[in-house]
TrEMBL record:
<keyword id="KW-0418">Kinase</keyword>
<keyword id="KW-0812">Transmembrane</keyword>
<feature type="region of interest" description="Disordered">
    <location>
        <begin position="1"/>
        <end position="56"/>
    </location>
</feature>
<dbReference type="InterPro" id="IPR029016">
    <property type="entry name" value="GAF-like_dom_sf"/>
</dbReference>
<feature type="domain" description="PPM-type phosphatase">
    <location>
        <begin position="587"/>
        <end position="807"/>
    </location>
</feature>
<dbReference type="Pfam" id="PF07228">
    <property type="entry name" value="SpoIIE"/>
</dbReference>
<keyword id="KW-0067">ATP-binding</keyword>
<feature type="domain" description="GAF">
    <location>
        <begin position="405"/>
        <end position="569"/>
    </location>
</feature>
<dbReference type="InterPro" id="IPR029151">
    <property type="entry name" value="Sensor-like_sf"/>
</dbReference>
<dbReference type="InterPro" id="IPR035965">
    <property type="entry name" value="PAS-like_dom_sf"/>
</dbReference>
<keyword id="KW-1133">Transmembrane helix</keyword>
<dbReference type="InterPro" id="IPR052016">
    <property type="entry name" value="Bact_Sigma-Reg"/>
</dbReference>
<dbReference type="InterPro" id="IPR001932">
    <property type="entry name" value="PPM-type_phosphatase-like_dom"/>
</dbReference>
<dbReference type="InterPro" id="IPR003594">
    <property type="entry name" value="HATPase_dom"/>
</dbReference>
<keyword id="KW-0597">Phosphoprotein</keyword>
<dbReference type="InterPro" id="IPR000014">
    <property type="entry name" value="PAS"/>
</dbReference>
<dbReference type="InterPro" id="IPR003018">
    <property type="entry name" value="GAF"/>
</dbReference>
Length: 917
């Protein structure tokens, strides 16, 4: 047994009493003596013999040094690394220095050569020679060879070469930057040419007045400059080789000396032997027993003493006399092999492994290891339960809150808890939470979700409004904000007080334990969750109470997010609908149908409007603000208000879009966030003005989809309306397209949500829209779910007259209008209409310019319009008592319902509207 301990080291060992074992004779050593022996802890130590010859010892020392397994080897590796780092650093430094010196030398030489040749006598005069190449080429080649540069090129101010080392490149354009040289400066640049990396300089050839009349370029490759690094590199490498050789020799010498002093054992092997021996005997959490062939205990470590409760003098005694259980003592005394045999020793379950020590020629006996599996089995059960709980919490993180719907989120919580945690689960929320609002201080809740292993449980159904009594676990959870555990519902009078009949049914159904957890999101109480147990006989415990609290806490965040989203969505939809037109204004130019469908995933910024203008004209506008939510809806309202105001100015579509573009740009600047970034409030818009008299429709668009035109024959086309940038980007003007629409045509305006989505592009959407319009009937309501259709009515009655610039013509205008009003049956308006036209025509004759035209329109109102080619706008004012004039527009404003001025490309129109009797 003494030999067994000796083999765990490297040829020597001690008895338990401390005496040294006798070394085996050299003759007994052979192949077997070189085998690796296992220590009780599982370590392997190589046995060295003294029979190794000197040369073999030296080679072993060298191998040990080179492999780095000894101290000397580690020193050797460190020396090698240091030497290599020094060599690499020296080579890199030489290369960088050489490259810098070469580049600098190339720059200096190319500049000097180019300037010298440019300023040499005869160079400037040769440029005026009929054949500059004949004069300059020989000189340039001679100078190139004398100075050692790679090329000298003389060129004119257009970069055309007069000289070059390769004659076939003369007459071609110089490759390089000559602009600064044309300005009188010297240019030096590094390029990768066909002959390698080179530095070239370009200098100007100046006349006496300083004018640049030509250019000279000289270049040289950096490879032709320098060379010091190549001469120094061998010396550096030689020094490195010498250093490595000295390090190798010194390491081998130190390693051999250490091996001789330790009798063949290296420091690493000796250290490992000691560490493993100490770990086996004192540090490991397994008991180790060494039993001799006679059944006597030779060695027991500290853990074995603790597990078996051995006496202090156990070593040296027979294992049958140690007071161990019979089956354990018999196993240790028999020496047979055993693998994870479980033996009960007092209150511990020990897993015993035993192996004989003479399997590889060692001394007879056995080694046994003991492992306490009592805690392991308990821990494995708890670990499995903990793993399942972690999995459930992970699934809660990814499976709860997949939608922004409060009810669906509550259902996901109940479905996750059953059957993994509880047999039944119910979620009760305040009504305000379901609507997106903040819960009130009340105990009235609504059953939102129920999940269970069966469908016939006598719990409150979904949708039931519940008022929990003060003594119920749910009410206590809401009041305290903490979870409540009811381990036995049969013995819970506070819970029974909720509903005596129903609680009796619940207990009779087999539900016996309950956990209630309040749904808290910060300081808000959203509701309460109840977990019910029926199948498992054990009640809920405190660990499960903590798990329920964690599970509900994670779900509460998702429910609160859904609540906030519902609130914001409802507010945005309300705001958006309040900003959109509730009814269309009265007008007779168009028949209009519309549909507006807000987005389900988030309120957008789409809007439309119909705006009556002067002269029976109508403005149509449709737009879309980038983004969703309250910000988009609010921006939409601001833009719609701006369009209303700008349309009152009777501006052309392109000018109105320009004003909107400026407004959106200011909105972006004003709404800068705290971190300095501004939200992009960009928008698209299409603005159209339709004149029913001329059937002319002027359209301009800013990044908006083009309108669709349905011809009277049913054909559909998308008119070519120039596309401007979206509003807010600025920089480019907008353009207006004029369309003449035949009677019976339909104009369809829409936003991009109708023709674009993630699954198709706009071309496919336009094709689908075209097909829908071709299949639609004549009524706008037939296709209002997909488009906004417009059907033009009959042309309104009108009368147009040309007026000569003579005040006497006013009388003729009044007479003509009187006749027309009589034909229309509007005799009651004759007097006021004559006064209005007299004043407007007189002003046009006095202050306007030819031609002057008068138009009277019979529509919902009677409209009088006077056209002239002047752009001067009249102003309404109060005339003094002594003024002879100045009362005309005042009379027009008093007699008409509305009046105003709009500008046209030819001039202006002053109009006035009178209500019909």
């Amino acid at each position: 047994m003494v030999r067994l301990l000796g083999r765990s080291g490297a040829g020597s060992s001690r008895h338990p009493s401390g005496s040294r074992a006798e070394r085996a004779p050299d003759g007994a050593r052979g192949a077997q003596g070189r085998r690796s022996a296992r220590t009780p802890g599982g370590a392997t130590a190589r046995r060295l013999t003294r029979a190794d010859p000197p040369d073999q010892g030296r080679f072993a020392a060298l191998r040990s040094a080179l492999t780095g397994r000894s101290v000397a080897g580690q020193v050797f590796v460190l020396q090698v690394v240091i030497v290599l780092l020094l060599v690499v650093a020296a080579v890199v430094a030489l290369y960088l220095q050489a490259r810098h010196d070469s580049t600098q030398e190339a720059r200096n030489r190319s500049v000097a050569v180019a300037e010298a040749f440019a300023n040499s006598p005869g160079t400037r005069e040769a440029l005026t020679n009929p054949d500059p190449t004949a004069v300059l080429q020989p000189r340039a080649e001679a100078a190139r060879k004398a100075t050692g540069v790679d090329f000298i090129v003389v060129m004119n101010t257009d970069g055309i070469r007069y000289t070059h080392p390769k004659p076939d490149r003369i007459g071609k354009k110089f490759v390089g930057n000559i602009a600064p040289a044309l300005a009188g400066q010297t240019v030096v640049e590094e390029i990768n040419g066909t002959i390698g990396r080179l530095v070239q300089a370009v200098v100007p050839i100046k006349a006496d007045d300083g004018t640049v009349v030509g250019l000279v370029s000289a270049g040289i490759t950096t490879a032709n400059v320098g060379g010091a690094a190549n001469r120094q590199l061998p010396l550096v490498l030689l020094a490195a080789a010498v250093g490595l050789a000295l390090a190798t020799a010194g390491t081998a010498l130190v390693s051999r000396r250490l091996l001789r002093q330790t009798h063949g054992l290296g420091p690493h092997e000796m250290t490992r032997m000691y560490e493993h021996h100490d770990a086996v005997l004192h540090a490991v959490r397994e008991g180790v027993l060494i039993v001799g062939d006679e059944g006597r205990l030779l060695l027991a470590n500290d853990e074995a003493h603790r597990l078996l409760d051995l006496p202090e003098d156990a070593e040296g005694r027979h294992v049958l006399d140690l007071g161990l259980p019979a089956d354990t003592a018999d196993l240790l005394a028999s020496g047979r092999m055993a693998t994870d045999e479980v033996h009960l020793v007092k209150d511990r379950l020990l897993a015993v492994n035993q192996r004989p020590t003479d399997a590889e020629g060692g001394p007879p006996g056995s080694v046994a290891t003991l492992r306490d599996s009592t805690e392991l089995r308990a821990l494995s059960g708890r670990a499995e339960a903990a793993r399942e709980r972690l999995n459930m919490l992970y699934d809660a993180g990814v499976g709860i809150g997949t939608s922004l719907d409060v009810t669906r989120t509550a259902e996901e919580l109940a479905e996750l808890a059953v059957p993994r945690f509880a047999d039944f689960a119910s979620v009760d929320l305040f009504d305000a939470v379901l609507g997106g609002g903040q819960p009130e201080a009340s105990t009235v809740l609504r059953r939102t979700a129920v999940s269970g292993i069966r469908k016939d449980a006598p719990l409150y159904p979904v949708g039931r409004q519940i008022t929990f009594v003060e003594s119920s676990p749910q009410a206590r959870s809401l009041r305290s904000g903490r979870p409540v555990l009811e381990p036995d519902l049969d013995l819970a009078p506070g819970w029974h007080a909720q509903d005596l009949e129903r609680t009796a049914q619940v207990v009779g159904y087999g539900i016996h334990s309950l956990i209630t957890v309040p749904l808290r999101a910060g300081t808000l109480l959203l509701g309460v969750v109840s977990f019910w147990r029926s199948e498992k006989p054990e009640p809920f415990d405190t660990e499960e109470l903590a798990l329920a609290e964690e599970l509900v806490a994670r779900a509460a965040v998702s429910i609160d997010n859904a609540r906030r989203y519902t609130r914001e969505h409802s507010m945005a939809v309300t705001l958006q609908r309040s900003l959109l037109p509730r009814s269309l204004p009265e007008q007779t130019a168009l028949d209009i149908a519309y549909r507006y469908l807000p987005a389900q995933a988030g309120v957008g910024g789409d809007w439309f409007d119909v705006l009556p203008l002067s002269g029976a004209r109508v403005a149509l506008v449709v737009g879309d603000v980038v983004g969703h939510g309250l910000h988009a809806a609010a921006t939409m309202g601001r833009l719609r208000t701006a369009v209303h105001n700008f349309s009152a100015l009777d501006l052309p579509p392109d000018e109105l879009l320009a004003l909107l573009d400026e407004l959106v740009g200011r909105i972006d600047q004003d709404e800068t966030t705290e971190d300095g970034s501004a939200p992009v409030t960009g928008a698209t818009c299409l603005y159209a003005i339709y004149d029913p008299v001329s059937r002319k429709c002027s359209i301009a668009r800013a990044g908006h989809p083009p309108p669709a035109l349905v011809r009277p024959d049913g054909g559909v086309e998308f008119p070519d309306v120039p596309t401007g940038l979206p509003l807010g980007l600025g920089g480019l003007p907008f353009e207006t397209a004029d369309l003449e629409l035949a009677e019976g045509s339909r104009l369809v305006l829409y936003t991009d949500g109708l023709v674009e989505d993630r699954e198709r592009d706009i071309d496919e959407g336009l094709d689908l829209l075209r097909g829908a319009l071709e299949r639609a009937g004549d009524s706008p309501e037939d296709t209002c779910r997909v488009v906004l259709e417009t059907q033009l009515p009959n042309k309104p009655s009108d009368d147009v007259a040309q007026v000569p610039p003579d005040p006497a013509a006013v009388g003729e205008v009044r007479a003509s209008v009187t006749r027309r009003l009589a034909e229309w049956g509007l005799d009651e308006l004759t007097f006021t209409t004559e006064l209005i036209l007299s004043e407007l025509v007189t002003n046009a004759i006095r202050y306007g310019a030819d031609p002057i035209r008068v138009r009277v329109l019979f529509d919902r109102t009677l409209i009088c319009e006077v056209f002239d080619s002047s752009s001067t706008s009249p102003h309404l004012r109060y005339a003094a008592m002594t003024d002879e004039g100045g009362r005309g527009l005042f009379l027009v404003a008093q007699l008409s319902e509305r009046w105003g001025t709009r500008y046209t490309p030819e001039g202006k129109v002053i109009w006035a509207e009178q209500p019909l009797p």
